Amino acid sequence: MELLKERILKDGTVKPGNVLKVDSFLNHQMDIPLINEIGKEFKRIYADAPITKILTIEASGIGIACIAAQYFNVPVVFAKKAKSVNLDGEMYTTKIESFTHKKVYDVILAKKFLSPEDHVLIIDDFLANGCALNGLIDIVHHSGATLEGTGIVIEKGFQRGGDMLRERGIRVESLAIIDSMTDTSLTFRE
Ligand code: 5GP
């Protein structure tokens, strides 16, 4: 998506540890017209998929998922990071290691919000090593729902997450794939 790539080049900054900071338009301050175009693009890509629910994870995925959901006309459900898990059988649970915080979270989703009839699109802001997406995919599989695919705003293609998921046959659609980045240069996959 050209508009997104131009914005990353203009306003993104590279931090130590292979972290791209895009907090002036995506992760802290949010540029709604841009995110609206992102939502439209996900709908264009998944126009033929019978999506019934968009799944994301708190916090950064929620705003993007909500704007996209208006084009799909379906609810958004977001997985929550929990400090402790109460295993009462009403929740799907999984563990996710945070790329940016280097912590392992228990992640929960109430069973009543995802069922075998659902066709799920997973949306998230970044894809790096794939821990977040793997956790969400795990939840979809436990629920018996059909995973239609994933929609990612920025994939760091030099980390292995995206390619590993594609090798498993999972549909991964990323609006910008970064092949390399340094303090002074950033290249996208064509
Ligand atoms: P993964 O689980 O694929 O390793 O990392 C994905 C998650 O880590 C995303 O949900 C995102 O919040 C965060 N993340 C990974 N890499 C970056 C990055 O370069 N910049 C920012 N802002 N977040 C990132």
UniProtKB/TrEMBL annotation:
Enumerate the catalysed reactions. Answer: XMP + diphosphate = xanthine + 5-phospho-alpha-D-ribose 1-diphosphate
Compartment list = Cytoplasm
Phosphoribosyltransferase domain residues are 43-157
Would the keyword Transferase turn up in this protein's UniProt record?
A: yes
According to the UniProt record, what class of enzyme is this?
Answer: transferase
The terms describing its cellular component in GO are: cytoplasm
- According to its UniProt record, the EC number is 2.4.2.22
How this chain assembles, per its entry, is: Homodimer.
Q: Which UniProt keywords apply?
A: Cytoplasm, Glycosyltransferase, Purine salvage, Transferase
- Which of this chain's residues are annotated to bind 5-phospho-alpha-D-ribose 1-diphosphate? 128-132
Tell me which HAMAP family the record gives.
XPRTase
Show the PANTHER family listed in the entry.
Answer: HYPOXANTHINE/GUANINE PHOSPHORIBOSYLTRANSFERASE (PTHR43864), XANTHINE PHOSPHORIBOSYLTRANSFERASE (PTHR43864:SF1)
Binding-site residues for xanthine, renumbered to this chain = 20, 27, 156
The Gene Ontology biological process annotation of the record reads:
purine ribonucleoside salvage; xanthine metabolic process; XMP salvage
Q: Which family does it belong to?
A: Belongs to the purine/pyrimidine phosphoribosyltransferase family. Xpt subfamily.
Protein name, entry field: Xanthine phosphoribosyltransferase
Q: What does this protein do?
A: Converts the preformed base xanthine, a product of nucleic acid breakdown, to xanthosine 5'-monophosphate (XMP), so it can be reused for RNA or DNA synthesis.
Single GO MF annotation: xanthine phosphoribosyltransferase activity
Pathway(s) of this molecule: Purine metabolism; XMP biosynthesis via salvage pathway; XMP from xanthine: step 1/1
Q: Name one Pfam family in it.
A: Pribosyltran
UniProt lists the gene as xpt
